[in-house]
Amino acid sequence: MPLFLLQKLIASWLVLLLAAQHFAYAHMIDVPAGKKECFFEDLHKQDKASLIMTVTYQVGGGGHLDIDFWLADPEGRLLGKQVKQSTGTLSVTAEKNGRFEYCFSNQMSAIADKIVSFNVHGIIYVGEDDVVAPIEREIRLLAHGLAAVKDEQEYIVVREKTHRNTAESTNDRVKWWSVLQAVVLFAVVGWQVYYLKSFFEVKRVI
User: Fold this and answer.
1) Residue-averaged pLDDT of the chain
2) CB neighbour list of residue 82: distance below 8 Å, 6 or more residues apart
3) Where is the signal peptide, in residue numbers (predicted)?
4) SS3 for 110?
């Protein structure tokens, strides 16, 4: 193999490693009524590269299946906010070093706790000036596409779990409603039998 082809192949694989380098975390939390839950990620601005952090979330149970979500930079500046959403995605680019905070707030609810599942992942991209070959740009796009597919799969899993919980809850309600109707029906029948029996009963007069 010619030396320049070997160097090109090595360069392509290095770009793949840089473009696909990412971290991912999956969590499920309970957010009590009237409370909020906050989390932190320490991000660092990359030299000749950019770090993009994405938070994807979905409310899996409780109340109207909605939550408030926001993300702030290390100086407390709000980078994005979503109000009363059941699902959402928010991405930020680390333009400075420090601790980025993101919160899930259930302060709008007085009685209903919320179950929230969320994923946090980040991808390091090399700068455009460092990518000169079309194959390298395609590798970066492929890495981004793979991350998007992974997020979609996780979203589908959470969505299926939410629908399954809703179906099971509906089935339980129908079952107990049927039991209640049967109890009421037997009670009414018993009362009617007793009333008719007492109505036609001949009472002795002493």
Assistant:
1) 78
2) 68, 69, 70, 88, 90
3) 1-26
4) coil
